[in-house]
Amino acid sequence: MFTLWTLIESSLLCLNAVCILHEERFLAKFGWGRQAGQQDFGAPTAKNQVLNLIRSIRTVAKIPLIFLNIIAIIFKLLLG
């Protein structure tokens, strides 16, 4: 059954996945490393915008995700 909790849990899992991506180990294999995000003059490409989004999410959401994960674990333990 699709509930609000499953929507929140799936978005939490997606945020966790974005936060644990390592640029040198994983993203560089696909050409999405730190050097790929540096752009020349001109309009930013979609690839550069996605890389900036990943870096921004990793910077901003690291600490709140710890607390959200703790809350989700406690909620799962209590209510199943």
UniProtKB/TrEMBL annotation:
Kindly list the places in or outside the cell where this protein is found, as annotated in its UniProt entry: Membrane
Listed transmembrane segments:
60-79
A single GO BP term for this record reads: endoplasmic reticulum to Golgi vesicle-mediated transport
Q: Where is the signal peptide?
A: 1-17
Q: By its UniProt entry, which Pfam families does this protein fall under?
A: Yos1 (PF08571)
The record's GO CC annotations read: COPII-coated ER to Golgi transport vesicle; endoplasmic reticulum membrane; Golgi membrane
Question: This protein's superkingdom?
Answer: Eukaryota
Arranged from A to Z, the UniProt key words for this protein are: Membrane, Protein transport, Signal, Transmembrane, Transmembrane helix, Transport
Query: Has UniProt tagged this entry with the keyword Transmembrane?
Result: yes
Q: PANTHER family under this entry?
A: IMMEDIATE EARLY RESPONSE 3-INTERACTING PROTEIN 1
Family, per entry? Belongs to the YOS1 family.
What this chain does, per the entry, is described as: Regulator of endoplasmic reticulum secretion that acts as a key determinant of brain size. Required for secretion of extracellular matrix proteins. Required for correct brain development by depositing sufficient extracellular matrix proteins for tissue integrity and the proliferation of neural progenitors. Acts as a regulator of the unfolded protein response (UPR).
User: What protein name does the entry list?
Assistant: Immediate early response 3-interacting protein 1
- Species whose genome carries this gene: Drosophila simulans
Q: Lineage of this protein's species?
A: Eukaryota, Metazoa, Ecdysozoa, Arthropoda, Hexapoda
Question: What gene does this protein come from?
Answer: Dsim\GD12834
